[in-house]
Amino acid sequence: MASLRQGCGDLRGLVSTFTQSCQGSLNEARGQVSWALGALSVSEAGPQLPEKQQGPPPGCPGRILELKGNIRVLCRLRPGTPSSLVSSEPGLDGSVTTCYRGHRRRFRLDWVFPPDASQEEVFRELEPAVLSCLRGYSVCIFTYGQTGTGKTYSMEGPPEDPGIAPRALQSLFREMRTGGQHQVTLSMVEIYNEAVRDLLAPGPPERLAVRQGPAGQGGIQVAGLTYWDVPNLETLHQMLSLGRSNRATAATAMNQHSSRSHALVTLTLQAASSTRGSGTTGTLHLVDLAGSERAWKAGGVCRARGDPDDAQRLREARTINRSLLALGGVMTALRSRRAHVPFRDSQLTRLLQPALGPGATAVLLLQISTRPEDLGETVCSLKFAERVGQVELGPARRRRARRSGTPSSLSTDTPLTGTPCTPTPSPGSPPSPGPDSGSSSALVPQEDLLS
Ligand SMILES: Nc1ncnc2c1ncn2[C@@H]1O[C@H](COP(=O)(O)OP(=O)(O)OP(=O)(O)O)[C@@H](O)[C@H]1O
């Protein structure tokens, strides 16, 4: 009788959630169709569009993005033991040559940074993409590679030698000071063991639900995510370091301070319309991916160390690898222009969906090791980068605000009145969502609001 009751309860639960799950699948199908239609119109319109409609004039940062393609792959070699098995030709259109299991293979990349490249040199190559966000572009910069190869070093960097994120913020605020009114909004999440957590939540971080946006509007919603209006650079730095300190890290076999989660920082930059042009909404996603670490390597070390936390490390390694595999699957589908792109396969790919949609620009910074014992991983990473380099997202597109869509409470580097790091949150909603976007996540750019 008890088991009959239990069965009956289960059945009731299933029935009650059935409509909801159907609606979810329907919404996703709609999203896929509108994504495919968007891709189609982009590929049809792309090269034929007159320059005026394509974006900024020659010489401007956005122009470089359009001409160089919407996904660029940069590679940075970690300093350390030089090996004759990994050699590189640094610079623009550089290459990395590996000699693995008797096979020589040359991988071409958009830019290769040698082991002695400085943080400044790396950022110089990325700065145009970063600044294009102020002109309404959506840009995603992500670091990818084996654990311990320097992803966090490149993205964050030590205080005495800052990496991409702090330099990007500084550069954006410097540029904003030169004129115009802007509003900057920040959100920061991590994906740890497939759970999405708000790194800037005012209370204890809880697991957040990721959902498909309302029907016909596409996009992804992260329920309960906090969005912060950031008035100045100092506050932004403080918030980022707060978020960073909330991130899950642990000592692993390969790295003493290994990031065990993927971290996604999203800045939305709204520029008010002025005599120089209409308002725009740009988005900058900075993604520090957790490192890939072969499960067998992690497993071997787990057994050898007999540490009680090692089972946890092994589980983390597996989920990280699964999500990176899903990212690889998405890249393959995008490259082959498949009708179905498996964005739903992991939380990482779901959240990255808007950043990899038509009209967006993505820059992959691949980190590799030159150590002979890492060669297998290095080749895998380079193959992944090669796949990414062949993806086409269509020409980069700017998002202009409607004429009436000027952001409401604009600020230009206004000094914070009150305690730093306590700006006004706008829980669960993005900054002034456009009527077409239907998105409640800062990870989701508003639709192309070309007026
Ligand atoms: N270019 C570099 N110059 C100097 N030190 C570096 C460089 N790249 C990496 N390192 C050092 O190597 C170590 C590992 O780097 P980091 O933590 O950034 O790796 P990671 O790829 O983010 O690892 P994980 O995926 O495990 O988080 C750190 O001590 C870092 O300071």
Automatic annotation (TrEMBL):
Organism: Molossus molossus
Bias (Pro residues): 422-434
InterPro entries per UniProt: Kinesin-like_fam (IPR027640), Kinesin_motor_CS (IPR019821), Kinesin_motor_dom (IPR001752), Kinesin_motor_dom_sf (IPR036961), P-loop_NTPase (IPR027417)
Similarity-based family: Belongs to the TRAFAC class myosin-kinesin ATPase superfamily. Kinesin family.
Occurrences of domain Kinesin motor (ranges): 70-391
Location(s), subcellular: Cytoplasm, Cytoskeleton
GO cellular component: microtubule
GO biological process, one term: microtubule-based movement
UniProt KW keywords: ATP-binding, Coiled coil, Cytoplasm, Cytoskeleton, Microtubule, Motor protein, Nucleotide-binding
Name of the protein this chain belongs to: Kinesin-like protein
Gene Ontology MF: a single term: microtubule binding
Function description: May play a role in microtubule-dependent retrograde axonal transport. May function as the motor for the transport of multivesicular body (MVB)-like organelles in dendrites.
